[in-house]
Design brief:
Elements: H1 9-26, H2 30-49, E1 55-59, E2 66-75, E3 86-88, H3 89-95, E4 104-108, H4 115-143, E5 149-158, E6 161-165, E7 170-173, E8 189-193
Parallel strand pairs: 2-3
Antiparallel strand pairs: 1-2, 2-4, 5-6, 5-8, 6-7
């Protein structure tokens, strides 16, 4: 069995470079993708631990490091009720300096056995977020072209409607919007009036 490889500085740099490239290529804000990564990892932590009220995921925008932290309230030893959200004063005092009862501290709890399922869930959430943002960007690009003339390439006939390639998106030219008797061939360039986006 292969030993688990720890994320290196090089891996983190590659992640940041990939996010930059994704931002340029898909015109999606890097911050939106990072927020999607954080929320997907948080959801995976919730699946792993069953409770995420005090769990937060922090993505360091400078280094690319990702950490999972639990907010813990310091309570007196005899008042400890919930070990997932509270820490006994005697334990905290032994580990940390200048701690007093009532303090709330962040403790790193990045799971060592986060596993393949958590990674898959995170990937699904990020891919879904990228698709949503791509759709928003395309809609915003084309919304300003409503009631304008554009050029497209005829792809095929679908019944009596025509499918037109407009670059990143396809449009349908309905039979009712076509000039009677006009016939187009696939790969032919035509001008279209955008009625609605």
């Amino acid at each position: 069995m292969a030993a688990r490889k720890k994320a290196t500085v090089n891996d983190r740099t590659e992640l940041l470079e990939a996010l930059d490239e994704l931002e340029k290529e898909k015109q999606i804000s890097k911050e939106i993708i990072i927020q999607a990564i954080e929320s997907s990892l948080l959801a995976a932590c919730k699946d792993e631990y069953g409770k995420s009220d005090n769990i937060k995921v922090i993505f360091d925008r400078e280094t690319g490091a990702i950490g999972v932290y639990a907010e813990m309230e310091i309570v007196e030893d005899d008042l400890l009720e919930d070990e997932t959200t509270q820490m006994a004063f005697s334990v905290a005092d032994a580990k940390y300096k200048n701690i007093k009862v009532g303090d709330v501290i962040d403790i790193e709890v990045t799971p060592k056995n986060f596993g393949r399922i958590a990674a898959q869930k995170a990937k699904q959430v990020v891919v879904q977020k990228i698709r949503e943002e791509e759709r928003k960007a395309l809609f915003n690009d084309w919304y300003c072209k409503e009631k304008d003339v554009v050029t497209g390439i005829v792809q095929r006939y679908v019944n009596r409607n025509i499918c037109i390639d407009l670059g990143k998106i396809d449009a349908i030219l309905n039979e009712s919007e076509q000039v009677k008797g006009e016939v187009f061939k696939p790969t032919e360039r035509i001008k279209l009036y955008v009625l609605e986006v």
